[in-house]
Amino acid sequence: MSFILNIETATKNCSVSIAEKGKTIVCSELADEGYSHAEKLHVFIEEVIAKAGITVQDLAAIAVSQGPGSYTGLRIGVSAAKGLCYALNIPLIAIDTLQTLASQANVSDGKIIPMLDARRMEVYSAVFNSDMTIERGIEAEIIDENSFKNYTDKIYFVGDCAEKCKTVLTAANFVFLEEVKYPSAQAMSKISFDKYQKSDTVDVAYFEPYYLKDFMIAPSKKQ
């Protein structure tokens, strides 16, 4: 059996799932404003393993969100994943956080732009086609009224930036899917299994999260 443990801690959502052959069997998650990842993560891991009726020895691999996202959240998730992989001698799979978030948009047309809140009007973003191929890679950018104006297709925004961004991103082809707020380990299952089948893994000893700290600097206004 190809059981994979998926761990997503890049945002306020502490999320863990067990998947078999790319399909989620069980998932435990909590989006907490207080970032309770340190307290919840190992509890959730034990919980999903028990609910799936397996043991850690049944795991074929562990997948973890690689970022971008919260520095502390990513460190907690990656540390737990690496420790388990090392102890069990199984491969580690790194999953792009924004890909996981974008895959939660159930659309068949246009483009999907996942955005994660950074600070002020800054976001982490990428652009995917509706078939989940990458249109534009990950960037840290400042959102203003001219952002994404070069896209004429329907644009579906997902992530935790709707509240601050929808007042400036007002083009007629822009749609905010506000129900898709945080990446979830449920959505990692197919991605991690595809990578597992291709042996697309990372080095347990040397892997580090992708923090993406280089923000654009807004020019100061002339007096």
From TrEMBL:
Organism lineage string: Bacteria, Pseudomonadati, Bacteroidota, Flavobacteriia, Flavobacteriales
Q: Which gene encodes it?
A: tsaB
Annotated signal sequence range: none
Top-level lineage group: Bacteria
Q: What is this protein called?
A: tRNA (Adenosine(37)-N6)-threonylcarbamoyltransferase complex dimerization subunit type 1 TsaB
Gene3D superfamilies membership: 3.30.420.40
InterPro entries found in the cross-reference section: ATPase_NBD (IPR043129), Gcp-like_dom (IPR000905), T6A_TsaB (IPR022496)
User: Pfam families from the xrefs?
Assistant: TsaD
Domain (Gcp-like) ranges: 36-128
